[in-house]
Specification:
- The complex is a heterodimer of chains A (about 525) and B (about 325).
- Chain A contains 17 helices and 20 strands.
- Chain A has about 525 residues and is α+β, with helices and mostly antiparallel strands.
- Chain A has a 5-stranded mixed beta sheet with strand order 15-14-16-13-17.
- In chain A, helix 3 (about 110-125) crosses helix 4 (about 125-130).
- Chain A is globular.
- In chain B, a hairpin with a 4-residue loop joins strand 1 and strand 2.
- Chain B has helices at about 5-30, 35-45, 50-60, 65-75, 90-125, 130-145, 150-160, 180-220, 220-230, 235-245, 245-270, 275-285, 290-315, and strands at about 85, 90.
- A two-stranded antiparallel ribbon of chain B has the order 1-2.
- Classes of the chains: A alpha+beta (about 525), B mainly alpha (about 325).
- At the A-B interface, helix 4, strand 10, helix 7 and helix 13 of A face helix 2, helix 3, helix 5, helix 7 and helix 12 of B.
């Protein structure tokens, strides 16, 4: 009887609740979203500039052929469907036919061909490496694009997100000097939002594209990105409701406990799957004793990476096991692990013959601190303390961003910190750090000077292996070798929080997080 | 020597000085490690050799340093501040877009500091030894010793976050489309906190300078004479004492006027004020050489102009001081 009553009550509740929920979730049209852009981008043309802020604002204006969900499964965008030939060398995209540029001109396959063969090959260092694998890009008709590859390249589709290959208007740029085109001040895209105004130093305003090719979208009337250079002020802006959305590193991790306690905010770490930034301690392997594997294993054992996660990053992110982030395809956790173990570190140093001197010091290291905010400085200070406990004395060197990138690029450092994006696939975002062909005097290459022919070979074979399972085997091998070798000390799979007003819905729905188009973001009443 | 003659000579000298400053700025900036290409590569998180080469070529960094300097000096002489390749806009456009905001902020703060400082200084001097004097002295010392950004943050915390009286940052309401009087009032409302923050430090200096100088003048014969003539205390303070005590304040105000832009970097950053100080700071971090040189050059011009003005004000305040080049 009681049970029957309960189920009746439950049924009634469902009866009343479901329509109520459905009502609450029906997207509302209208409203202006105020958010933060930091630092202020120099220009909004994706390709001419590929910094985070440019991609975030540009992601509302420009679109790619595809979008990606949190599992990095491709979804249609400018391409409504696509097919891959059996040999994995021919990709055919069918494009949406009613798309118009913001200036009213029709969008066509020619724009895609232009973007792939001219715009991004000329300008975008990230895409260039992949575009060189294409033998031909053709447009048999207005709404079809065919890409012929020189050899199979399984991760190809991942490149068609707007953050990597935004489609640019051929009618504006073809035949001009891309970098000095006067239209660079007024971006023209196909996206749900149009560029309206940019008051330098104050804000960038985007407005609804009334002629957007998806009827009824977007929901928001406008998006305003405010330039707020000071971290404390960004937190104030969010807390006082002047802005309703903060992302990336807008809010310092040490503010997290406060925002978690506030009821009117939603916080998520999702939306970084495409990038999966992995932070590590960069080691210049040309310098002894860093060239000794035992020394590197001692470093990673001496550092309590859980402490870094818990105390410095306030429980954001995860402790990595190796070079591939756990949020990325082909991650394998079955590798040599390094739990916090100072005794093991000391033993390794003993084995190397590094005996403590009268002050207990076995070795000296210099650390070129990463000038990307308070939290990196604290990480450097913690590492200094942790390594001191096993007899390694660390001197922290301060620089600004320009000097840091230059010194890293010229290999003028012993240790530093760095974090790079993985771009959804180890071939796209991980291999570059460890293959010897990418030892270059440029930051974000293999600046450590790590060279291992087996690793080179495995990454090369994994790039062109035809199926995902073939690739998985190769990547699993490479992860085990790298985890044994410790070419860098992996510290943290970074997770940047997206914090927003609870009334704002559908904010993070793609693998690129707040870089997405925001066509379906709305304010619930 | 006439005032015009004097002015012409000073302007001529100023031009030579400015040219020397331009050359020095150029050399100083190049001493910092890192260049725009490495910064951009660092921000984008990806680079290859072709990309770096393209950037360096675009920025003209592949030319020998001496040719770069020569090009820069030629441009400065032609009053051309160059092009910011990073922002794809002329430096002049960027700088003049941001200059009004800085001038508004700094001149308001300057006026506030002068008026407030002199008033408090006079008040302290005329009540020397009283509790009011002690209070002003202690406050002045406090303001003098406290970093600007901290004062700014505390004011924000109290007046914006807790009381909600004034906006915490920005120069005006965004996306409201205000015009005319409404917009001016809105900007004035936003101006309150940053102007006070920037002004407080100098209020302290002026208050102390005025107080000391007033006390010195107080016991001089002409003040005693004035008092003996039976003039009102109010008139004695205003006409006889203050007029004679004001010179050191003017000297310092002249120096401060030159420093205003520099001091505003912190305040502009804390209050998200879209001024030239922040522009300079960002240009420095990004190694946007042309833009940074442009801001440096313009601020140098302002320092030179303010110095000139100070000297002229001297002679107005005290006709015994002669203008001589």
């Amino acid at each position: 009887m009681v049970r029957a009553c309960m189920s009746l009550l439950f049924g009634l509740a469902v009866l009343f609740l479901v329509p109520a929920l459905a009502l609450a979730q029906a997207p509302q049209r209208g409203g202006t979203l105020a958010s933060i852009v930091n630092p202020e981008p120099p220009i909004l043309i994706v390709g001419l500039n590929n910094q985070g802020p440019t991609l975030m604002v540009g992601g509302k204006i420009y679109q790619g052929l595809l979008r990606f969900d949190h599992d990095l499964k491709p979804l249609p965008s400018l391409a409504k469907s696509w097919t891959i030939s059996a040999d994995g060398r021919t990709y055919t995209f069918k494009l949406e036919e009613t798309v118009r540029w913001h200036d009213g001109k029709p969008f066509s396959a020619e724009d895609v061909v232009f973007s792939l063969t001219k715009w991004h090959t000329e300008l975008n260092p990230r895409s260039r490496a992949v575009l060189q694998r294409m033998a031909a890009v053709t447009a048999p008709d207005r709404s079809t694009v065919v890409i012929q590859l020189k050899e199979p390249f399984e991760p190809l589709l991942l490149m068609f997100d707007a953050t990597a290959l935004a489609i640019m208007p051929k009618h504006i740029y073809d035949g001009t000097d891309f970098r000095t085109n006067p239209m660079n001040q007024t971006p023209i895209g196909t996206g749900p939002f149009k560029f309206k105004e940019w008051q330098r130093g104050q804000y960038i305003q985007l407005v609804r594209n009334e002629d957007y090719w998806k009827p009824g979208l977007p929901y928001l009337d406008a998006i305003i990105y405010r330039v707020i250079p000071d971290a404390a002020q960004r937190a104030v802006a969010l807390e006082t409701g002047v802005v309703q959305l903060a992302q990336s590193n807008d809010i310092e991790p040490f503010e997290m406990p406060r925002f978690r306690a506030l009821r009117n905010f939603e916080i998520t770490g999702k939306g970084w799957e495409m990038f999966s930034p992995l932070a590590w301690m960069d080691l210049n392997l040309r310098e002894p004793p860093l060239n000794d594997k035992r020394f590197r294993q001692a470093l990673i054992s001496a550092i309590d990476r859980n402490f870094i996660r818990e105390r410095i990053w306030h429980a954001l992110g995860r402790v990595p096991t190796g070079p591939i982030a756990s949020t990325t395809r082909f991650y394998d956790k079955d590798v040599p692990l390094y739990p916090h173990d100072p005794e093991r570190a000391k033993k390794l140093l003993d084995d190397m013959g590094l005996k403590p001197d009268s002050r207990g010091v076995r070795a000296h290291l210099k650390n070129l601190a990463l000038p990307y905010g308070e939290v990196w400085m604290r990480t450097a200070e913690y590492v200094k303390q942790a390594l001191a406990k096993v007899g390694i004395e660390v001197t922290i060197e301060s620089t600004d961003a320009g000097a840091w990138a230059q010194r890293l690029g010229e290999w003028q450092y012993q240790t530093s910190f760095n974090f790079v994006y993985q771009w959804g696939d180890p071939t796209l975002g991980v291999a570059r750090t460890y293959v010897s062909s990418n030892i270059q005097k440029i930051a974000f290459t293999n600046t450590m000077g790590y060279a291992n022919p087996t690793v080179d070979d495995l990454f090369a074979r994994a790039a062109t292996a035809p199926t995902a399972s073939d690739r998985q085997k190769l990547f699993s091998q490479v992860q085990r070798i790298l985890a044994e070798d410790v070419p860098v000390v992996w510290l943290l799979e970074l997770e940047f929080p997206t914090i927003h007003d609870k009334r704002l819905k559908h904010v993070v729905s793609e693998g690129v997080g707040t870089n997405a188009s925001f066509e379906d973001v709305y304010f619930a009443k | 020597m006439g005032r015009l003659d004097y002015l012409a000579k000073r302007v001529l000298k100023a031009l030579v000085i400015l040219l020397a400053i331009a050359v020095m700025n150029f050399c100083l900036i190049r001493l910092a490690p890192g260049d725009p290409a490495s910064v951009i590569a660092g921000e984008a998180g990806a680079a290859d050799a072709k990309y770096m080469e393209q950037l360096r070529h675009q920025f003209g960094l592949d030319l020998p340093l001496s040719s770069q300097l020569w090009i820069y000096v030629k441009n400065v002489v032609a009053l051309d501040l160059g092009f910011s390749y990073r922002n794809q806009r002329t430096v002049a456009a960027m700088v003049f877009e941001r200059l009004p905001a800085t001038l508004l902020l700094t001149l308001t703060a300057f006026a506030l500091a002068l008026a407030g400082g002199i008033f408090l200084g006079v008040l302290a001097a005329t009540h020397a030894g009283s509790w009011a004097d002690s209070l002003i002295t202690v406050l002045a010392l406090g303001f003098y010793a406290t970093p600007l950004f901290w004062v700014g943050l505390m004011l924000i915390l109290l007046f914006s976050v807790n009381l909600g009286w004034v906006p915490a940052f920005g120069m005006e309401q965004v996306g409201q489309g205000l015009v005319g009087i409404e917009r001016s009032l809105d900007i004035a409302h936003h101006l309150i906190l940053p102007a006070i923050t920037l002004g407080l430090f100098f209020v302290a200096i002026y208050a102390r300078l005025t107080r000391a100088s007033m006390l010195e003048v107080r016991d001089m014969d002409f003040v005693r004479t004035a008092r003996a003539k039976g003039l009102s205390e109010h008139r004695i303070v205003r006409v006889h004492m203050l007029k004679n005590a004001i010179l050191p304040v003017i000297t310092f105000a002249g120096i401060q006027a030159g420093q205003l832009v520099g001091g505003s970097i912190v305040v502009e950053t804390v209050f998200a004020w879209p001024g030239i100080g922040r522009l300079a700071f960002e240009a420095l971090l990004q190694r946007d050489y042309n833009l940074l040189l442009g801001v440096f050059f313009l601020t140098s011009v302002m320092v030179v102009v303010f110095n000139l003005l100070t000297d002229l004000v001297y002679s107005l305040a005290d006709p015994r001081i002669e203008v001589a080049a």
